[in-house]
Q: What sequence folds into this?
């Protein structure tokens, strides 16, 4: 009897797979070479970083003084020919000459520490952030401030003496300068010892509201303390009576909208010279 022949299996050589793989590798190589050439061309033309340099070349820090003769800007004169910058909110962080450590803490946490970072944060949130500070007769402190401003470029410097007793005047000067320099829906006053979430503040300010004038912050009224031994002693208590009128209170507030700032920046209410 003839022996049954065993079945033999033959596996064809994967020529088609090898050819396909070669084609793919060749295409990848060509694309890679083209990408490298494009990169070289862009670098040679100076396009990488060129756009950022153009966008971020203008300094952010600014000094403002008041022209006693008044004028169309409500007496404000800046250190350059500036147009009002459009933002949703301007956040002025009140600071002083003895608060270098606080400013550094903010720059290491929620506030960008460089020019480009501030610009990116503004583009992402619609909020502009600056440290608000006055001036002093101490030449060494002014020199240190100018050095810090040149390094971080995040100051708005006011033409007012930086003194604790003149904080109300500094607040008025801040709102006047902020309104003159920024076309903003909100003007936010904050202290330099807070931790702020810019993204959350942006969402809060972006909400639609039935009224065009909005105030976000604390309101206070209560007895006037006339005893000099008490912490909250009010030296002008005789002018206020026995109780404070309802007023904005606290260091952190989102102030109103345009109308209030226009009232504060009118020609008839020039920034006063404060004498002691």
A:
């Amino acid at each position: 009897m003839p022996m049954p022949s065993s079945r033999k299996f033959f596996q064809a050589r994967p020529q088609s797979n090898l050819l396909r793989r070669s084609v793919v590798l060749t295409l990848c190589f060509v694309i890679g070479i083209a990408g490298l050439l494009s990169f070289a061309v862009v670098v040679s033309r100076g396009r990488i970083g060129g756009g950022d340099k153009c966008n971020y070349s203008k300094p952010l820090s600014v000094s403002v003084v008041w022209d006693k003769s008044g004028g169309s800007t409500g007496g404000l004169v800046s250190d350059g020919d500036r147009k009002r910058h459009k933002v949703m909110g301007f956040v002025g962080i009140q600071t002083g000459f003895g608060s270098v450590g606080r400013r550094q803490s903010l720059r290491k946490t929620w506030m960008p520490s460089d020019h480009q970072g501030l610009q990116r944060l503004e583009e992402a949130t619609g909020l502009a952030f600056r440290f608000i500070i006055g001036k002093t007769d101490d030449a060494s402190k002014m020199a240190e401030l100018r050095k810090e401003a040149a390094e971080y470029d995040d100051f708005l410097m006011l033409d007012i003496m930086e003194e604790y007793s003149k904080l109300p005047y500094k607040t008025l000067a801040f709102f006047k300068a902020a309104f003159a320099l920024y076309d903003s829906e909100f003007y936010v006053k904050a202290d330099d010892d807070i931790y702020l979430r810019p993204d959350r503040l942006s969402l809060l300010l972006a909400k639609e509201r039935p009224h065009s004038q909005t105030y976000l912050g604390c309101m206070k009224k209560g007895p006037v303390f006339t005893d000099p031994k008490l912490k909250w002693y009010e030296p002008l208590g005789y002018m206020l009576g026995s109780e404070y009128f309802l007023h904005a209170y606290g260091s952190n507030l989102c102030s109103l909208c345009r109308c209030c700032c226009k009232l504060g920046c009118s020609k008839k209410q020039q920034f006063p010279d404060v004498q002691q």
